[in-house]
Amino acid sequence: MEFRVRSGAQPDRTRLEVDSEITLAGVLAQFGKAAVVNEIAKRIAEQFADNLSRRLNETAQASPGSPVSVPQIEAGRLLLDIASARIAQAVTPFCTKLRLRRKS
């Protein structure tokens, strides 16, 4: 991972840019579609940003030397969320068609 810290748009803001490379292995590397891989990368980046924000806020409010907890990224939950969202996206058009047929 590569991190860059830059001045933000406002004087009291800082911009953190993160570049990462992901190496896929196993089944995901063999059969993973680009859209699924991109969704996984997006969600990992979002969780990273949420965890970093939480940690910075807790650190600012904590007394010196007190421990700060940050949740782990749960890979299984991440994949389940993506799979369920994709299934819902695929099924929705069929459900809409069935509803229209029943009304006719």
List the helices and strands and how they pair.
Layout: E1 2-7, E2 14-19, H1 26-31, H2 34-61, H3 75-103
Antiparallel strand pairs: 1-2
Can you give a write-up of this model?
InterPro entries: START-like_dom_sf. The protein has helices at residues 26-31, 34-61, 75-103, and strands at 2-7, 14-19. By secondary structure, it is mainly alpha-helical. Strands 1-2 form a two-stranded antiparallel ribbon. It starts with a strand and ends with a helix. The mean pLDDT is 76.
Short key terms for the protein model shown above:
START-like_dom_sf; 3 helices; elongated; 104 residues; 2 domains; two-stranded antiparallel ribbon; 2 strands; mainly alpha
